[in-house]
Amino acid sequence: MLEIEGLTRKFGDTIALDAVSLRIAPGEFVGVIGRSGAGKSTLLRLINRLVEPSAGRIVFDGADVTAKRGGALRDWRRQAAMIFQQFALVDQLSVLENVLVGRLALTPRWRTWTLQFKAEDRALAIEALDRLDMAQHALKRADELSGGQQQRVAIARALVQEPRLILADEPVASLDPRSTAAVMGALKRINAEDGLPVLCNLHHIDLARDYCTRIIGVRRGQLVFDGPVEALDDAA
Ligand code: ADP
Ligand code: ADP
What we know:
Layout: E1 2-11, E2 14-24, E3 29-33, H1 40-48, E4 55-60, E5 63-64, H2 70-79, E6 80-83, H3 95-101, H4 109-113, H5 119-131, H6 147-160, E7 165-169, H7 177-194, E8 198-202, H8 205-211, E9 214-219, E10 222-228, H9 229-235
Helix pairs in contact: 3-6, 5-6, 6-7
Bound molecules: adenosine-5'-diphosphate (ADP) (2 copies).
One adenosine-5'-diphosphate is lined by residues 11, 14, 16, 34, 36-42.
């Protein structure tokens, strides 16, 4: 269970997120909807602790995420796995190596210096690629792939991080409709099979309707809607 209380972030005079409170249960697939600049990205980055809150608290399964430091913070960042609009793969590395990047935080330092992964890590990476239907591309360079394929590799990388939560920040904003369906379908399948909660920023309400169990509307940093997909249709 993810619990957010009064979460606020200011950038100078801009209140990017304004006292947002919400709870997300295991297995929920939450679409976060709002215009550009509404605060969606700030919300996800606050949860991952890429951005520090000005006020408020984040609690996950009873533990205060906002108080984490050092190793515990690194663990949390790995567990709250981010998916980005621009995939954030390393072009020069193979698909398999890009997925192994997700294991770095779980690998002893001396092994990462020499890039020695255990056979077990490679097996996990291949298994994750297989779930995303990308195992056949494991040895290609990341930049040989289409955008939709790159995003599926990024999801595989998130999976090997042993995530407890998936935070997807506009994961399909730069993809064509076919790739969009493949990526959203993959997130939905992982959500259903693993019971992982997913928070997914979207700016198309139609996508949220098709894939999400719950929709959160954000406007000028404030929560303006929170409910099941059907309630949105009633409100419109
Ligand atoms: P969204 O993801 O909904 O497009 P953001 O969370 O990116 O919105 O931005 C919310 C507001 O906070 C915007 O006004 C944006 O300009 C501002 N903002 C976000 N990040 C920063 C930053 N690092 N520095 C200054 N202002 C920022
Ligand atoms: P370090 O300070 O150990 O070199 P970084 O600052 O690169 O580590 O990253 C800090 C933590 O954030 C690491 O545990 C890493 O796994 C995690 N991290 C980096 N990128 C992502 C991402 N895209 N999604 C989730 N966690 C990430």
